[in-house]
Amino acid sequence: MSAIIIDGKAIAEEVRADVKRRVDALKANGVNPCLAVILVGNNPASVSYVTGKRKSLAEAGMTDRSLELAEDTTEEQLLSIIDELNRDESVHGILVQLPLPRHISEDKVIMAISPEKDVDGFHPVNVGNMMIGRDGFLPCTPHGILVLLEKMNINTNGANAVVVGRSNIVGKPVAILLTRREYNCTVTICHTGTKNIADVTRGADILIAAVGKPNTITADMVKEGAVVIDVGVNRIADATKKSGFRLCGDVDFEAVKEKASYITPVPKGVGPMTIAMLMQNTVESAERAFEKASK
Questions:
Q1: Is 83 a catalytic residue?
Q2: Exactly one of 117, 118, 120, 252 is catalytic; which is it?
Q3: What values do phi and psi take at 90, rounded to 5?
Q4: Reduced DSSP (H G I as helix, E B as strand, rest coil) percent helix, strand, coil of the chain, to 5
Q5: Residue of 201, 226, 264, 292 with fewest CB within 10 Å of its CB?
Q6: Residue among 97, 205, 230, 250 flagged as catalytic
Q7: Are 131 and 177 in contact (CB under 8 A)?
């Protein structure tokens, strides 16, 4: 029996509809939620991601203060722009698209963004708040994964969750979030140093793959009835496609869907949720600013 395919696109549309309602309510009170997306250089994948974010901003009725900067923009120039946006009360969210050119320190840039406007959830203050369960912006992809589980009514209480990948963007934060009392999972993180990784993944009730390598998770690594969340987005050369490539995840989808109970596809799985949660964080930032100004 094939797995139920989790339609991330449809669930993301639900989230975005709620965001639009909240944006309209703020506008009725004279507040225009605003996000500044900064792109440095012309990395094709980054350009594509930024285009998607800007389209979502327009659909939500938010103000788009996006900036496209040249590849040779200096670190000092970028930090100066971030400082200006931090001080601009009409801007509620700041996102610098990663990766950055090599001459710019990603750490310095992340640290420079005000935690109150860090809608990516990457600033150490927001990471710390996430760790101890305080209010703050949650990183978009991990938060989107949790919303998928909730919307599909997947019971996480007491589940064994295995996260393959330990990035600061997905692997580590989703592992931390799954241990929260409201999800109550027992979590194992696998990485390049993990021995006999298949033995670990076969024990997963919920298996999350976030490594950025096609077909890392094969059918023999998945137990019958597991929930499989594929975070990977990999470009594979494909002459039959107009673009010259096709997208695939980290999971061998066709084989694994015959064993899993639920599975996310690539595309239209986790990807749409990432942008939806970014929009949610931005409107939440605007709401907080409005509440603060109203006191």
A1: no
A2: 120
A3: -80, -10
A4: 45, 15, 40
A5: 292
A6: 97
A7: no
